[in-house]
Amino acid sequence: MTKQLNAMAAEVPRDAPWTAARAGEYDGQTFETWKRANVQSEGGRFLLDLGVEAVFAAEPRDLSLLHLLFYVNSAGNESTPGTFDRLIATAGGAQESRFTGGSQLIARGLARRLGKRVITGAPVRRIEQKRGRVSAVCDKLTVSARQAIVAVPPAVTPFIRFDPLLPGPRAQLLQRFPMGSVIKCMAVYPKPFWREAGLTGQATSDTGPVKISFDNTPPDGGPGVLLGFIEGQEARIWTAKPAAERRAAVIESFVRYFGAQAADPTAYYEKSWAEEQWTRGCYGGYLAPGVLLDYGPEIRRPHGRVHWAGTETATIWNGYMEGALRSGERAAAEALGVL
Amino acid sequence: MTKQLNAMAAEVPRDAPWTAARAGEYDGQTFETWKRANVQSEGGRFLLDLGVEAVFAAEPRDLSLLHLLFYVNSAGNESTPGTFDRLIATAGGAQESRFTGGSQLIARGLARRLGKRVITGAPVRRIEQKRGRVSAVCDKLTVSARQAIVAVPPAVTPFIRFDPLLPGPRAQLLQRFPMGSVIKCMAVYPKPFWREAGLTGQATSDTGPVKISFDNTPPDGGPGVLLGFIEGQEARIWTAKPAAERRAAVIESFVRYFGAQAADPTAYYEKSWAEEQWTRGCYGGYLAPGVLLDYGPEIRRPHGRVHWAGTETATIWNGYMEGALRSGERAAAEALGVL
């Protein structure tokens, strides 16, 4: 069934999904509707559900079929077509690599090179455009320039006041770009005990809260770390529960997959991204039916001197770090072009 | 076909649509999907499209079938079941009455009775809860109380900063409650000339931008006023166009319906609600597939001392003034109950 999806995705233009020949049909339905019509086996449906939850941190019913097809096509590059498998695969896919030391090292390394030009702890409250300048107004600081790039998620942009106001179509796009729902959970053990039993630490299950796990042990082999994802509907349910209850349920999932030794971690860490002030969800923004058709052309349309970056504006690897990087280059070129 | 919809709607509990026996099936699909599967004639599909555009200022593909069914059931009261016809009908339906002098008279009359307690022109920027009090912080004013009621549309709530932060599920609900898209247009003539030709001033058309019109002439018979609605996709397209171009297209619609005399109005007024700072759309918020299932219980859940009103929280006549009124009474009772 992913073959059929890949073939459909290949016909959805990455830079303008709303111009696809069957855009009206695809954006009129949820991915759930397509799944029910085209996948008959319970096992096949379950695997698609799990794949969508892992990729979007949302449910098949939340997504426009057109958005999903765009996203699949976007998981390629100038020379390689995107495929559903490239999204979900470890070997050769988006889930293959981790950063030794954590992915924040990239941001920190870049910040070090930029020095004092990087200001943290100063959220922008307002963006004003007047007299040929654009100003980002923080609580104790105002930065003025000829062009500005906003790179927060669409769902976070409404926290900023714009003067002049955002035009109606952009304001309405921002009402229609929700973030996924995920809680990332890690249990730490003295050593990766599951390896002795010949287990990889990777599990997929139809029973939550953790339906997907990975071995997140550091490359030097210790301590042992099991990583579990609570995604989509499960995350929406579990984020509101008491921390102790959630921890117990996560550990119970690990015991189910890797045995009684998982019952007593030396440490436990978790992050519910919906609770995070400056993203209010993860991994990125996705689109329900109808949005690409009626608001798609707004996604990258500048607001005067304000340009839009962020992975949700990317045409290649939308939703990933690669897309964020590419969107930054595109927005920078756009701003430089009008300077 | 509306009989079938009404029967399905009757089984969707107004106060908890997500508990309906077939909630999963209904919230997994768009109304567009249901329409294509259940209505075969082009005429029937057109009428449903027009009805949805008129009621939600959105397209059938934008809406969860479950949300639409809830909305239909909500168009009743304690003794009367809701029906699709009650939503779209003039005689005996939601479109029957206008307020002589304009509906703002109600708000103004109530404000007069409340006197200085009503403060306008002071948008709330922050809502803080600490030491047993809740404070609404405006630019030049802070109001403190034991309980607070927020009655702005869900899509506008993110413009307010909350301390403590809104919990994840509510923050994510607010990302998923978009406003409809409508431009309301009025052309004024010396007299209601169409009446002389035996015309009501009401038109429905499959060609935009105005697909629905009404005679909005004041009760005393003059001047003549034609009211045209640009709704859903048409509104999303036309709100971004130059005013003169939009005016010409609206007048062209009126000429098409009522003859050459419509070509030269003495005045023309319009309001594109997506451009309006404190609603950013109209008539109200609607829900895409999946939202009621995973976020429905959040709609009326208080945030500490903050209670939620507004027509989007109503169980009866959700989306209408009646629903707004009822939601205010419910929220007030809720706040009084914990005082």
What does this structure look like?
Two copies of one chain form a homodimer. By secondary structure, chain A is α+β, with helices and mostly antiparallel strands. Chain A has 13 helices and eleven strands. In chain A, a hairpin with a 7-residue loop joins strand 7 (203-204) and strand 8. Chains A and B meet through helix 3, helix 8 and helix 12 of A and helix 3, helix 8 and helix 12 of B.
Offer a few descriptive terms.
homodimer, alpha+beta, five-stranded antiparallel β-sheet, four-stranded mixed β-sheet, 13 helices, 11 strands
SSE topology sketch:
The structure is a homodimer of 339-residue chains.
Chain A: H1 2-10, H2 23-27, H3 31-38, H4 42-56, H5 65-74, H6 84-88, H7 104-114, E1 126-130, E2 133-137, E3 142-145, E4 148-150, E5 161-163, H8 168-174, E6 182-189, H9 193-196, E7 203-204, E8 212-215, E9 224-231, H10 233-238, H11 243-258, E10 267-272, H12 291-295, E11 306-308, H13 321-338
Parallel strand pairs in A: 1-5, 4-11
Antiparallel strand pairs in A: 1-2, 2-3, 6-9, 6-10, 7-8, 8-9
Helix pairs in contact in A: 1-5
